[in-house]
Amino acid sequence: MLLAKKEKILEKLEEIYQGRESALNFNNPFEMLIATILSAQSTDNQVNKVTGRLFAKYPTPKKIAFLSKEDLAEEIKGCGLYKTKAANILSTVKLLLAEYDGQVPKSREELMKLPGVGRKTANVVLANAFGEPALGVDTHVFRVANRLGLAEGKTPLQVEEQLMLVIPQHKWKEAHHWLIWHGRLVCKARKPQCDICPVGDLCPSVSK
Fold this sequence. Notes:
Blueprint: H1 3-17, H2 29-38, H3 44-57, H4 61-65, H5 69-76, H6 82-99, H7 108-111, H8 119-130, H9 139-148, H10 156-166, H11 172-185
């Protein structure tokens, strides 16, 4: 797809979804980190229900660190893969306390040292908690970017790298949200609503 066509798609998405933010509720970088870890295999609404209860009882790494793996699993069991996530979160909060004085690090490299934190999670935290230019590629971004022809990647990293070439750096954080919300509201995984898609006339997948 020609660069000019990609830019038109992005301009239209920006026009429609400008101002949209993360659907996860958080008050600080630590809450953003934990919520993002919990969001894998879970809806944002479900994560918000779980974190609302969790942070009311255990608002800091130190308080969570006192929980057993079983107790934490019970607190977060509304989320998918909750037993694995409980183990990762406990290891993460202990590492934050031991190495970072209980603070969430501000670099991708340091974030990815935390258990349960991959590149996508690190990018989401960097963008949303710290306002850093980063482009997290979750399932929505991966699907929508490929369908719209903004990227042609077989892995999230390939899609991220290709998107960074067509989206100005200062818009990476915002564009992440444009693609997510378009994926949630229109370009859905199973039944994309191509008939009402605002960029359908530019999309290479509509005819397919």
